[in-house]
Amino acid sequence: MALSVVMPALEMAQETGTLVAWLRQEGEQVRKGEMLLEVETDKAVVEIEAAGDGLLGGISAKPGDVIPVGETIAWLLQAGESVPVAPAVPTSTGRRSDAAPAPRQQPSPAAGDTPGARAAGSARISPKARRLAREHDVDIASVRGSGPGGEVLADDILAAAAAGAGPPVAADPQAGPTGVEPLSSVGRLMAARTTQSWTSAPHFFVTREIDATALNAARATLIPAVEASHGIKITYTDLLVALIGRALQRHPRLNASWTADGIALHQDVNVALAMAVEQAVVTAVVLGADSAAIGEVAVRRRDLADRARAGRLQRADITGATFTISNLGMYGVDAFTAIIVPPQAGILAVGAIADRVVAVGGAAVVRPMMTMTLSADHRVVDGAMAAAFLTDVVAAIRDPASWLSIA
Question: Using only C-alpha atoms, what is the Rg of the chain?
Answer without folding.
Answer: 24
